[in-house]
């Protein structure tokens, strides 16, 4: 397959939806020769913050000298965005070669067809192994125990903040959800790194960990982060104290940083140094996660697709925008807690244009607009994300700000428009010579 055909194949699997279970994925890995077996890895699980933690952990390992791959989901700019090697997005040749190998392995998979997420996960593992990755950091998709990524034997598991989300699949309390996410590791596992948890959630997370006889490092106990003056902060782990300069204004961004530092240190079995952390942070690109696109008006992009994520965004908005209250573009998926998300966002926005993302799972905008008006926010319905963004920009005016939130699918519709590039993913990948250096493209063209 060429890159275009590979993308059509992956995208065409969407109608198969999500089917839990590891039999298909295990068979696929066997057919591909278990591509990630033996590569040191970090499995990142949790409800919010997984993508940020994954990319930062990978960046720190790369800065420490390991050829490091990262696998994240979902994407904002394109399928290849999900797979990076030393911070460089997977190039078309590598994507096509891996997709061709995965496609050829599918006939041997039990139950026949595989899901879209299984296919993309297999592509990622195959491509990173073929490129000679010396470490991989893998973000779980949904849950953990039965997630397609749970075919790696990771010596380190990073647990980000756990909250209520996908309750119809994972359980209706934090302890049960945490148990599902911790299912990526065996009972008695000692390589756990637990990030910051909401005070109300912490006892339930501890109960889930204790029930499995697991142990490891805990935020606030074994490691933490303290903000200093300006951009300065100090991260403490069992390996010592580390002072770094990082432009991370939100409290939860600093918590994710501490979790990523601790996770990388557990892989390396040593402390990171300041240069490794600062070089790593400088290389991280995280589309759609509190992403500020400067302009007039400024546009802030954030998925905020569950109440906990929306509360974190609401906390960050005045920090990054000051006294400016943004005009929002909001769209959500039908399976989300719209009331909880809007309870968090309504106090920090001055008006909203509600629209429907291109995903088939998107909810109609009229109920969202009505709920916003019930919360005192002037809201209307605008057909189509691009038109909603145009209306928000006009309302915000010079010196104002626009906030796009509520769904990563909505961000996927609007990010290329906001960034003003016809091929944003190609621009994020870097120059061709850089791709060749990192991904060794000649190996994929054979």
Give structural notes:
With 446 residues, the chain is of the alpha/beta class. The protein folds into 2 domains: 3-285, Mur-like, catalytic domain (UDP-N-acetylmuramoyl-L-alanine:D-glutamate ligase); 291-424, Mur ligase, C-terminal domain (Protein-Tyrosine Phosphatase, Chain A), CATH 3.90.190. It is 42% helix and 15% strand. It has 18 helices and 17 strands. The chain has helices spanning 3-12, 23-31, 50-63, 92-105, 116-130, 167-170, 174-181, 202-211, 251-268, 274-283, 307-321, 338-345, 365-374, 385-396, 408-419, 424-429, 432-439, 441-445, and strands spanning 41-45, 68-71, 83-85, 88-89, 135-139, 156-159, 192-194, 216-218, 224-227, 232-237, 240-245, 291-293, 298-301, 327-330, 351-354, 378-381, 401-405. The protein has an 8-stranded mixed β-sheet with strand order 4-3-2-5-1-6-7-8, with helices on both faces. A 6-stranded mixed β-sheet has the order 12-13-17-14-15-16, sandwiched between helices. It has a 3-stranded antiparallel β-sheet with strand order 9-10-11, covered by helices on one side. α12 links the parallel β14 (327-330) and β15 (351-354). α1 (3-12) packs across α4 (92-105) and α3 crosses α10 (274-283). The longest helix has 18 residues, at 251-268.
């Amino acid at each position: 397959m060429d890159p275009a055909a590979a993308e059509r194949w992956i995208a065409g699997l969407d109608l198969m939806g999500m089917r839990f279970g590891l039999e298909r994925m295990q068979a696929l890995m066997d057919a591909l020769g278990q591509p990630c077996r033996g590569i040191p890895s970090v499995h990142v699980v949790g409800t919010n913050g997984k993508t940020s933690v994954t990319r930062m952990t990978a960046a720190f390992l790369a800065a420490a000298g390991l050829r490091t791959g990262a696998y994240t989901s979902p994407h904002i700019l394109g399928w290849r965005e999900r797979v990076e090697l030393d911070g460089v997005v997977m190039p078309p040749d590598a994507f096509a070669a891996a997709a061709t190998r995965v496609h050829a392995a599918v006939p041997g998979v039990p139950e026949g067809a595989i899901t879209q997420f299984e296919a993309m996960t297999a592509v990622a593992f195959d491509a990173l192994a073929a490129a000679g990755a010396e470490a991989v950091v893998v973000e779980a998709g949904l849950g953990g125990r039965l997630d397609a990524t749970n075919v790696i034997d990771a010596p380190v598991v990073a647990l980000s903040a756990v909250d209520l989300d996908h309750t119809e699949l994972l359980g209706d309390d934090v302890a049960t959800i945490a148990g599902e996410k911790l299912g990526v590791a065996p009972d008695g596992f000692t390589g756990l790194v637990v990030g910051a948890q909401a005070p109300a959630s912490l006892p339930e997370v501890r109960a889930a960990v204790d029930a499995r006889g697991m142990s490891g490092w805990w935020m606030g106990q074994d490691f933490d982060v303290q903000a200093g003056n300006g951009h300065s902060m100090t991260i403490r782990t069992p390996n010592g104290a580390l002072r770094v300069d990082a432009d991370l204004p939100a409290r939860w961004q600093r918590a994710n940083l501490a979790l990523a530092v601790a996770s990388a240190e557990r892989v390396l079995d040593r402390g990171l140094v300041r240069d490794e952390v600062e070089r790593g942070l400088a290389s991280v690109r995280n589309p759609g996660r509190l992403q500020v696109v400067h302009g007039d008006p400024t546009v802030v992009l954030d998925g905020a697709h569950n109440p906990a994520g929306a509360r974190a965004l609401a906390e960050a908005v005045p920090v990054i925008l000051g006294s400016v209250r943004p005009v929002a573009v909001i769209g959500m998926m039908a399976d989300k807690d719209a009331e909880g998300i809007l309870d968090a966002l309504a106090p920090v926005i001055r008006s909203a244009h509600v629209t429907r993302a291109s995903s088939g799972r998107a909810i109609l905008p009229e109920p969202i607009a009505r709920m916003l008006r019930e919360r005192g926010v002037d809201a209307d319905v605008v057909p189509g994300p691009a038109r909603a963004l145009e209306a928000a920009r006009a309302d915000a005016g010079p010196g104002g700000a626009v906030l796009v939130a509520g769904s990563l699918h909505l961000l996927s519709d609007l990010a290329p428009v906001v960034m003003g590039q016809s091929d944003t993913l190609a621009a994020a990948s870097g120059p061709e010579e850089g791709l060749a250096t990192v991904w060794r493209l000649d190996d994929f063209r054979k």
